Amino acid sequence: MPRLLPPDPLLMDDHQRRVHDAIMAGPRGRVRGPLAVWLHRPGLAEHAQALGRYCRYDSSLHPSLSELAILTIAAWWRSDFEWWAHAPIAVKAGVPEAAVEAIRRGTPPELPDEEQAMVYEFATILLKSREVPDAVYARAVSLLGRDRVVDLVGVCGYYTLISMTLNVFRIPAPEDAAPQFEPQNREAE
Question: Structure pTM?
Answer without folding.
Answer: 0.90
